Amino acid sequence: MPSPLRIAILASGRGSNFAALLAARDRGELPVEFVLVGSDKADAGALQLAEMASIPTLVLDPRDYAERRDYDFALFERIAASKPDLLVLAGFMRIIDGDALKPWVGRMINIHPSLLPKYRGLHTHRRAIKAGDREHGASVHYVTAELDGGPVIAQTALMIGPDDDENTLAARLLPLEHQLLPAVVALIAAGRLSFHADVVTFDGEPLRKPLRWQDGALVR
């Protein structure tokens, strides 16, 4: 039996996407081992979840570093010490130095609350409503030096209702995020998904467009 995929998590907030990964593991749907949960905020809910699950934690305060670049290299040095196979950004609210993340390209994914390439960065729900979009969603993508610009692996979508504001839209999208991220991690853990030489491969073939979450599964 192959060893479980070793996963490190970075999160800045409550950790609901991390909680979804934990729940999927506990249901036997994710053959993974969580080796570290790190944060830039000592009060992040993700850290409390990790502690309750007896997962090692790391807090590194950006204010202790004169330069963002110095912080990022220090953070990734500590993450590397836990020897993860995959690093998952699950609500990590910092822009990462491109040189610091370069060794992790192909081994780092992020979940972002928009249908990329639309609305990179912050306030995605507000921007989608303001633009008059009919549809909104979330994307899981490989992380590269370009902000929210790495190859998109999979997406989930929902219709924007006439009474939606940014808060209601975010609340309706979140349960879909909690399905999407574990499904993508499961594909990586199964060896069905990889990223090499700027090409995402799914089941041995180049992935030409993002997988879609449909009827409880990811489909081409």
TrEMBL record:
Enzyme Commission identifier(s): 2.1.2.2
Signal sequence region: none
Pathway connected to this protein: Purine metabolism; IMP biosynthesis via de novo pathway; N(2)-formyl-N(1)-(5-phospho-D-ribosyl)glycinamide from N(1)-(5-phospho-D-ribosyl)glycinamide (10-formyl THF route): step 1/1
GO terms classed as biological process: 'de novo' IMP biosynthetic process
SUPFAM superfamilies cross-referenced by the UniProt entry: Formyltransferase (SSF53328)
TM stretches of this protein: none
Superkingdom of source: Bacteria
Catalytic reaction annotation: N(1)-(5-phospho-beta-D-ribosyl)glycinamide + (6R)-10-formyltetrahydrofolate = N(2)-formyl-N(1)-(5-phospho-beta-D-ribosyl)glycinamide + (6S)-5,6,7,8-tetrahydrofolate + H(+)
Family: Belongs to the GART family.
Function: Catalyzes the transfer of a formyl group from 10-formyltetrahydrofolate to 5-phospho-ribosyl-glycinamide (GAR), producing 5-phospho-ribosyl-N-formylglycinamide (FGAR) and tetrahydrofolate.
Name under which the protein is recorded: Phosphoribosylglycinamide formyltransferase
Gene: purN
